[in-house]
Design goal:
- The structure is a single chain.
- The chain is α/β, with parallel strands linked by helices.
- It has 2 domains: 29-59 and 309-442, Alpha-Beta Complex (Aspartate Aminotransferase, domain 1); 82-304, Aspartate Aminotransferase, domain 2.
- The protein has 13 helices and 16 strands.
- Strands 4-11-10-9-8-5-6-7 form an 8-stranded mixed sheet, sandwiched between helices.
- The chain starts with a strand and ends in an 11-residue tail after the last helix.
- Mean pLDDT is 89; it is low at 1-9 and 427-443.
Length: 443
């Protein structure tokens, strides 16, 4: 590949992209997700994917949904196929206030709800509104890969705050705020997933929630609370949202993707009124209006179907799969450690000393099992000794088989590290021996 230059030294593109030098600076911050990069591999039927966070939809009443869709188009097709409000359909916003009541957000005003194209768009809009290049976003260590991609694209600087088995550590949050400000940088928000964290699988304890809210309000740090998994606790209703402790200090993000179906691409932001106004304007600039078909379909589902009983059925299904995952880890991979989720889709696995999850991934794929290396969930390259395992989509039998396959890779990797040392991962695989596996970038 060659890059030419004009007389003042500016790049003139290359043979792959003649427009290379015309992109905005932020375009060069766009990165392929490590999870998306795996899709072509994990879609092969012989591969057991413990990588993706796709909800299992086999228990959805698809026949009833088909009838509802037919009725919607037959009776309200002209409205469903038309543009809608940039803020979102009022009827659905009213239903969303009922959904949020299960998270302890009581008396919510539908006028402060903004419908978005999945909660991912709400993440992007909030970052667009608040972040100047170089501004700091505090985020748990680790954090959601989709959020990190948005933050990077918007030229934010992410500073990770430690977690433990009870979620974000308040003392560590205070210290991080102090350290960042002492360095002269500006903190704009804290991004957090308090319930059944992606990827860590842990839940912020009830005792810490008001403390986190108080710290951020005192320090004038806006909280961006992302709660896609809140209703999917295995054994109980959700703990009160952080928003319930600080209504003016939190923008709360929700989604129907995990509790219902991701194909509708409907999420929402519940924000203090002034921020709500800005969100509506930003959303209208981006998409004009969210899909009326999707909004009306979900509103009909919430109105006509016992949706909370369906959520409880999902809880039982995911609890069974989580138990299959944890039991298989205990049986096949006792030299690792992992988090014990009370809900959601994930567990966070710590590998034995010296193992590198990212370097090991090609050998796992060769063994027909996939996971996501921990590096995907950090802004700064941490996480090589971790992996995220997802139990939401495969059957319990496939989960057990996937963990068994993964264990053979981990055990073989451990033997190689014991034989050659941790420096084994710093060289090409062929330096250890030809034909063991493709290089990590071959996926």
């Amino acid at each position: 590949m060659s890059i030419s230059a004009n007389s003042d030294g500016n790049q003139q593109g290359n043979r792959l992209d003649p427009w290379f030098n015309t992109y905005a600076e932020r375009a060069h911050n766009l990165r392929a997700s490590e999870i998306r990069a795996l899709f072509s591999v994990v879609s092969r039927p012989e591969v057991v994917s413990l990588a993706g966070g796709m909800p299992n939809l086999t228990d959805l009443p698809l026949d009833r949904l088909a009838e509802s869709a037919k009725h919607l188009i037959a009776t309200h097709g002209a409205q469903a196929m038309q543009y809608g409000s940039g803020q979102g359909w009022e009827v659905l916003r009213e239903h969303i206030t009922e959904v949020m009541s299960y998270d302890g957000i009581l008396g919510a005003d539908p006028d402060d709800v903004v419908i978005t194209t999945g909660s991912q768009q709400a993440l992007d809009l909030m970052t667009e509104l608040f972040i100047n290049p170089g501004d700091v976003i505090l985020a748990e260590a680790p954090s959601y890969v989709g959020a990190l991609g948005v933050f990077r694209a918007r030229q934010a600087d992410v500073v990770h705050v430690p977690m433990d088995e009870n979620g974000l550590i308040p003392e560590a949050l205070e210290q991080s705020i102090h350290d960042v400000r002492a360095s002269g940088r500006t903190i704009k928000m804290l991004y957090t997933i308090p319930n059944f964290h992606n990827p860590a699988g842990v839940t912020l304890s009830l005792e810490r929630r008001p403390r986190i809210a108080e710290i951020c309000m005192r320090e004038q740090v806006l909280i961006l609370e992302d709660n896609p998994y809140g209703l999917l606790g295995f054994h109980s209703d959700p703990l009160p949202a952080i928003q319930s402790f600080s209504p003016e200090g939190v923008v709360y993000l929700g989604s129907f993707s995990k509790m219902f179906a991701p194909g509708f691409r409907i999420g929402w932001a519940y924000a203090p009124h002034a921020i709500r106004d800005k969100l509506v304007l930003a959303s209208e600039s981006a998409i004009l209006s969210p899909s009326m078909v999707g909004q009306m379909a979900i509103a009909g589902y919430l109105r006509d179907y016992d949706w909370y009983s369906q959520v409880k059925a999902f809880r039982s299904m995911y609890a069974e799969r989580a138990q299959a995952m944890l039991g298989a880890l205990e049986e096949y991979m006792p030299d690792c450690t992992w988090t014990i989720p009370d809900g959601g889709f994930y567990t966070w696995v710590t590998l034995p000393a010296g193992l590198d999850a990212k370097s090991m991934l090609p050998r796992a794929v060769r063994a027909q099992v996939a996971y996501v290396a921990g590096t995907a969930f950090y802004y700064d390259g941490q996480g090589r000794d971790h992996m995220r395992l997802s139990f939401c989509y495969p059957t319990p039998e496939r989960i057990r088989e996937g963990v068994r396959r993964l264990s053979t890779v981990v055990h073989a990797e451990k033997e190689l590290v014991e034989m050659f040392g941790a420096a084994f991962h710093k060289h090409d695989i062929d330096e250890v021996g030809p034909g063991i596996a493709p290089a990590p970038n071959a996926l």
